[in-house]
Amino acid sequence: MEKNIDWLFSLIRIAGVAFPVSASLVQWQAEISSKDLLERVQKLEDPVSFLHEDIPELSKLIYQSLRKNESPVLSFVDEFYEKYSRALAALESQGYIESSRCIGNRHPVNISLCDASFIMYMCALAEDKSKMTRLFSSVDSCAVGLWLDGKKIKEEIDLPLPVILAMFEIFESKGIGYRSKEVGSAMYYAKA
């Protein structure tokens, strides 16, 4: 249909405001173009939400579970997987989550949050902005050669440890620091 009315929009732009009907059609077409442009910009600013319409709601639920369980590996009831199956599939196709499955079971056994940026996306939707600002400032202002203890930060700011580790990971990916790989460790070393 869009191609079928392209000629109409071209004609309206040519006629401009010279005719009363075309004047209102020019405004209508400008509003449609503005809406399309706004939607395109929103997709660039928030590409995760545009994967599926249920993703913002789903992300908040996943974050609540992350906060409660303090783990990036989360299990949900079958109804959850049924309701959000397409949104979960969209997230998995982009590498934000990974599903663990058992033979003979329709639903995943659990999902793993495997992308630090997705964890930050969930925080942007569901977490207190002042806590996230404090976390960011702590990591960003860490002096070169010093270590941050994620477990202490967790107690001070009241954020789930996987969120703090995700922030460390993001800074590490930019070459600014190093997240300790020692099992059970939650340490970050600032190198730049």
Provide the number of structural domains.
Answer: 3
Strand count, sense and barrel status of the largest sheet are:
3 strands, antiparallel
**Quick one: how many beta strands?**
6
The proportion of residues in beta strands is 5-15%
CATH-derived topology of the largest domain: Arc Repressor Mutant, subunit A
CATH architecture of the largest domain: Orthogonal Bundle
Please list the strands of the largest sheet in the order they lie side by side.
1-3-2
Question: What form results from the Cα inertia axes?
Answer: globular
Uncertain segments: 1-5
The helix/strand class is: mainly alpha
What is the averaged pLDDT score?
Answer: 85
Give a written overview of the molecule.
The chain is mainly α and 192 residues long. 57% of the residues lie in helices and 10% in strands. Strands 1-3-2 form a three-stranded antiparallel beta sheet. The chain has a three-stranded antiparallel beta sheet with strand order 4-6-5. Helix 3 packs across helix 6 (116-126). It starts with 5 loop residues before the first helix and ends with a strand.
Descriptive tags:
192 residues, mainly alpha, Arc Repressor Mutant, subunit A, 3 domains, three-stranded antiparallel sheet, globular
Briefly characterize the structure.
The chain is mainly α and 192 residues long. It has nine helices and six strands. 22% of the residues are buried.
